[in-house]
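Input record (one chain):
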Amino acid sequence: MRFGKSRKNGKKSKKSRTTVCIIITAAIFAGFAIRLVDWQLVQGKSYKSLAAKSTGYTEKTDATRGEIVDRNGVGLVVNTTKYKIVLNKLYIEEDRLDGILLELADILTKTGDARTDSLPISVGSDGSCVYKTSREEDAEKLLSSDFLDIDRNTSADDCFDALLKRYKISDRLSLSQKTTLVSIHYNMELENYSNSNPYVFAKNISRSAVNAVSENTQGVSGVEIQTYLTRGASDPDLAPHIIGALGSLSEDEYNELKKQGKSYSYDDKIGKFGIELACEDDLKGKGGTRVIQRNADGTLVESIETESAKPGNTVYLTIDSKLQKTAVKSLEENVKAAKQAGKESGQKNNGEDCETGAVVMLSVKDFSVLAAASYPTYDLNRYSEYGSYYVKLSENKNSPMYNRATVGTFACGSVFKPCVAGAALEEKIITDKTKIYCKQDYDFYPTNVVRCMHYHGSLDVTGAIEQSCNYFFADTGRRLGIEPMYLYAQKFGLGEYTGVEIEESKGTLAGRDSTDWQVGNTVSAAIGQSDNAFTPVQLATYVATIANNGERLKTHIVDKVTNYERTKTVKSTAVESYGDCGISKKNLDIVRKAMLGVTQNENGTANYMFGDYKVKVAAKTGTAENSGSDHTTFICYAPYEKPEVAIAVVIEHGAKGKYSMQVAKDLLDAYFN
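The corresponding structure, as predicted from the sequence alone:
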């Protein structure tokens, strides 16, 4: 009985468990049903939106490179917002592509905008094809391509047919449409158009093109108008040697920057010379990142900035654009004038070979560069494209890319004499009363005779500077000796780096820097010949030192660095002294008074140019012998009483000093007006 009772209770328990399972199962299904209703009906729109965001990826955002401006904030290198048309293959159906391309090309034709076109084939109205003579390099690239079954001897007609076949261009299209499509498809192939690499159909398009494309491509997936920044010189031939340019990173540069812990990518651009190089760390900025979300048809749904890009800083130069324009213009005019005069004279070595020159103007107050020009100059924007223009510049015998103002070294001639005079006075080799009789030919060393342009007779140091007497300085230099001459010249900054931030040469100072020095060379060195070869910026620093009571300051071309918006100064260039020239004020005054006599005394070599000038100018003229016509040099500072500016001019093979003097006068006019 006990056993039988137990069986009855067991059956009842089993039935209860089954009921519980059914209830639980029903509850689960009910829960699913409720959740499904919630998903589909209550939150349907929200989940549909999330589902639409089917593509998400992170991309880097470039930092805007800082701008370069002059001392007054006038833009020298500026960033400008431009528009471009971008095609994203991932979202363009293949059978719709040609229609889209033709529509875009038609819009640009109507708005007068250009698209990228690298096809070196010209197609006539009759369908005949020829290779464009102006695009030989592009034609060579096409004929040697590995995606066409052609060789270098293939005719333009056969090449065009091969392209039509490759790109599956419909025969139903007009010849004009076929040509357009072949051109575009060829460009797309060159640019590796793919799902992961969108194609830039056109850059720098007008606002009218932006509007037309936006209106006509509404609902067309894969076509976008994007903004981008272009960087360029506002006045491309004003100061290319100073500003410099950007270029691609070399492997060595990349590895070195990586060692320094700096963040660069292989495809980044970096300053290669000039301010772009010198201020690379200030100008570069820091890139950021953003998350992009696109829906299934490629439409941009959301862009979330995860790390903001920080633009580079703005670099203020000490250059004054107005003075720089004057320097560039005057230098060109006077180089050409010297050449023309030389040709017209009919005499050899009289300026007919004059092609180049340079000028530098400094502020005496702080040795900041107000203007620095080299001639010939070049278009910085075209140079940056590294195309045929760059090749043309490279092949130009006058080396327009060469920065003569800070890198070029030239025999200085008689502008060296004030240095020798100051050294000889300080070393008590002469006094202001000492007179030397000029017999024109100084033949103390028979194997190294120094000839004076005139028979001056008896002259003191003032007269010798005013009239630029070689005899006086050859004898004074011989008695002074090359070692003291070298040391004083060095203190004036000759044969020394000036400190300017961009590339510069150290130059050559006769004496220690020379090889196989002979005692007779000293007399040549004393008149600015021998091995003496200095840069225009060194000569400007030298005369500024004379004007600044003998104290040489660090020459500089960067004024300050601010944030990109120019609202906050990050750093400023401080005035830095390189020391005193070692010549007393009394002796320096003798030299300076003599330099004033160069312009004010009727026998002064620059009197005819500056005798009645509105401010008193202290100066020294110079000519330097070399192969061909003589170089002409000129240094000056003004006003004489309270110096503000110092100038050095070199015109290679200028023959006559009036041309270098005129450049300085034009700059003084621009400054004092």
